[in-house]
From TrEMBL:
The lineage of its organism: Bacteria, Bacillati, Actinomycetota, Actinomycetes, Micrococcales. Gene3D superfamilies: 3.30.70.120. It comes from Isoptericola variabilis (strain 225). It holds the Pfam family CutA1. GO terms for biological process: response to metal ion. SUPFAM superfamilies: GlnB-like (SSF54913). Belongs to the CutA family. One of its GO terms (molecular function) is copper ion binding. This is CutA1 divalent ion tolerance protein. InterPro entries: Ion_tolerance_CutA, N-reg_PII-like_a/b, N-reg_PII/ATP_PRibTrfase_C.
Amino acid sequence: MTDLVQVVTVVDSDDVANALVRDAVAARLAACGQVDGPLTSTYWWEGQVETATEWRATLKTTAERAAALEAFLVGQHPYDVPEVLTTPVTGGNPDYLRWVAGEVR
């Protein structure tokens, strides 16, 4: 079985999140992705606490393709220091896992 990972990032608009997902899938870096939000994020930035509205993009790919997807997201991201987090998936529907692997080859 191929190792599946989820890669997550957040951006400041629905349009940007959907474009990142669409472009990553079109490039075969991810098999699929979802956008959810709006979310309220609170964080330290340049010495002060900030609060912003953001949208989360969650993409599914293989561990083998994760670094390429991460590089793509960082390169296309509008933020100076984008959040790009990769989490291994430890289980799931074997048919779905095979489908993801097949779509990112």
